Amino acid sequence: MNKNNFAYFGFVALPIILILLGYLINLVAPPTLKFPNPWDILKQLIELIGDQEVLEAIWVTIRALFKSLLLSLIIGICLGYFLGYNMKVWNSSQPTVDFFRSIPVTFLIPVSALLIGVNDKNIIWLLSSYPGILVMIFSVRTGIMKQEPERIHFFKIISGKNNFITRFFKVTFFETLPDLFSGFRIALSYGLVIVTVLEYMRLGNEMGLGGLVNDELERQHYSNVYAFILLIGIIGFILNKVTEIIQGKYIHWSNENSKSD
Question: What's the whole-model pTM score?
Fold first, then answer.
């Protein structure tokens, strides 16, 4: 069975596993904590997707996610190349980067609330970009470490040029692209989780998917709660799959490296 067949099997197996898991949880859960019928959750999911309020919430969440990813890419890539290109600079800056990597984003909420206000519309995507920046820094650094000295040497010989900027855009940038894309996919997953969690905590002044989960939980509409959670998972899966397809099509040498490994 090839890779594609396994992927198709996964598409079929996932809903079956979720349905069986729902029934299994109900077998062991106390009566007060009964899990909603999986079929009711799927039914609610189909109904909610066509609701105007839900569509607007999806747009709010995705817009915040894309803003955070854009900021993560700009700052993370620039800092990653700046800090990672020189070993001495990286060694001196790594303790600082590791320090900030150890701080959960939720602990930054009080600082952000003081600076821009807890109800500011930008607070969610600004906070969610924080882990994405750190992920991109380390991903770029990993790509630089994997860079093959022979290619740089061959480039110098063939082109007769030793200009740093030319060498960067002709060799280094393409060498680091596979790790950059891998880091982006991690930042994408982190970003979606953090955006929806911050929406659930009622930050900002717009209603996203996380806010709808909070509302339905307060109303004790548990089928809707799990339907929204399932919807968030589907959105994350689609976005990751699109990124994977783009990487496989345009960064084809990353697939070649994985096959050789």
Answer: 0.81
